[in-house]
Amino acid sequence: MQTVLVPEQTLNVSHLADVVVVGGGPAGIAAAIAAARNGSSTLLIEQRGYMGGMGTAALVPAFCPFTDGEKPVIRGIGLELLEIMKREAGESYYDRFKQQLDWVPIDVETLKRIYDREVLGSGAHILFHTMVEQVLLKDDAIEGIVIVNKSGRTVVKAKLYIDATGDADLAALAGVPFQPKDDNGELQPGTMCYVVAGADKARFEKFLEETGEQRHLENIVSKAQQQGDLPAGRKRISGMAWITETVVGFNFGHLFGIDGTNTSDLTQAAIEGRQLIQTQIRFLRNYIPGFENIHLVHSGDQVGIRETRRILGDYTLVVDDYISARTFSDDVARNSYFIDIHLANAQSTMTIKHLPKGYSHGVPYRCMLPQGKSNLIIAGRSVSSDRPVQGSLRVMPNCFAMGQAAGTAASIAAELDIGFRDVKIQELQHKLIQQGAYLGDTPGVESTTLQGGTVVFAEECEDSDHQ
Ligand SMILES: Cc1cc2nc3c(=O)[nH]c(=O)nc-3n(C[C@H](O)[C@H](O)[C@H](O)COP(=O)(O)OP(=O)(O)OC[C@H]3O[C@@H](n4cnc5c(N)ncnc54)[C@H](O)[C@@H]3O)c2cc1C
Which UniProt keywords apply (predicted)? Predict the structure, then answer.
């Protein structure tokens, strides 16, 4: 490969803040709101012209459960934003979903507007259309980050940095170590999600009722696959979210072999994803009553990415912690979502493992702290975990909770001029609980409430209902 020596450049410092959050997905939004509400001057940097991450940019159609089947375990800022979206998405939307906390469909345009307002309302500043290009290091600390946008290249300096890019981009630029890939180097597939209008919910439901077809229409999918009208892979129509009686979001079908940190892969997936949507629309129109007249109104700005880098943190959350519903002394969130690993190739199967209703495990602060860096914290789907736990922790409600924890920790650290590892965990937990987060019935008391043991995932394989 050819190389070029790029000349050194003196750059202006365009922004100074206590806390910089890179990435405006669920983790970054909650982090910025928490840091700003707790008094830190906060800047959120986002590559797109709006926030929401996968839930808006990739059109992921619904929020995963906020509850453990019995009670909400994701509370605080995430739950607050969910309730605001329900109220502002229109009367009929509110009537349908006001009682619901699990699998609430996403009204993308309402959500984008709410995120703008709520992040700005917290006192945080936003810089859209901006990517982080370089990290300036001094010893174990980040001194500044080089950003690039239409206005050119500048430096942003802060006391504390929150990486909420989903891909741990900031951590990668800072040289943080990552978890090794598993033996097969497998990653979950991507999905190009989309929204259609012109569907007929009543007709569709009547068809299901009359034919006794399962909601997922497995027989029809299998027939279409045999006739070459759908590609091999996912055996069900899943991830269907009715936003209105005629508008439906889809998270259906997979794009295999995509590394979301590789731009060529993302490019190829965008092109293939749009082609796959055309195939699926034809299938829906021809095979499924209620979908005869659908019209594609929007596909993701990018392919949805479920899994990329996982950092190596001070603690790595592993599947045994998950299945034993472990509580840690430094918990900053709880997770009850099932382990949900999508097939890595068309011949493979889904891997699903549920906790019993009412159970959750703790998410320790240490799994957000990257080894070797004092003023950097990671929030969202790239925290330190093994693959199975990432398959559970990655969903949006959890990312809100981890984001709130990261932002709150940053505000404590900024005030005291200390690094993330020097934050007193009891103070952080106390603040989180005071500000609405749920850390279990006995926060900070180490325990395991379920029998652990070896998990044989193959026995648990089935397809996921939604996402
Ligand atoms: C197809 C699919 C279906 C899913 N289904 C569901 C579901 O039904 N329900 C659910 O709750 N979850 C679902 N998930 C999981 C969930 O959407 C994501 O895991 C979650 O959004 C991760 O949140 P995050 O904040 O960590 O990162 P993201 O949502 O990925 O947000 C990261 C943000 O950072 C920005 N960014 C990234 N890199 C940079 C950079 N270098 N500089 C500046 N900005 C940057 C991005 O533009 C983005 O806005 C699904 C995911 C996929 C892909």
Answer: 4Fe-4S, Iron, Iron-sulfur, Metal-binding, Oxidoreductase
The ligand 1 site (C-beta within 6 Å) comprises: 22-28, 45-48, 53-55, 57-58, 60, 62-64, 131-132, 164-167, 169, 191, 193, 251, 304-306, 380-381, 394-397, 399, 466-467
The answer, yes or no, to whether residue 76 has pLDDT greater than 70, is yes
Write out pLDDT tens, residues 144-161.
999 999 999 999 999 999
Output the six-digit token pair for 276: 């796959």
Q: Distance from CA of residue 250 to its chain's centroid? A: 17
Gap from CA of 79 to ligand 1 centroid (Å):
17
3-state secondary structure 117-165: HHHHHCCCEEECCCEEEEEEEECCEEEEEEEEECCEEEEEEEEEEEECC
Lookup: tokens for 349: 């199967």
451 three-class SS: coil
Atom of ligand 1 nearest to the CA of 394: 19
From the CA of 399, how far away is ligand 1's center (Å)?
A: 9
CATH superfamily for 13-180+308-460 is FAD/NAD(P)-binding domain (3.50.50.60)
Nearest CA to ligand 1 atom 26: 380
Task: Identify whether the C-beta of residue 435 lies closer than 8 Å to the C-beta of residue 76.
Answer: yes
DSSP letter (8 states) at residue 237 = -
How far is residue 73's CA from residue 220's CA, in Å, rounded to a whole number?
37
pLDDT value for 239: 86
**458 has pLDDT over 70:** no
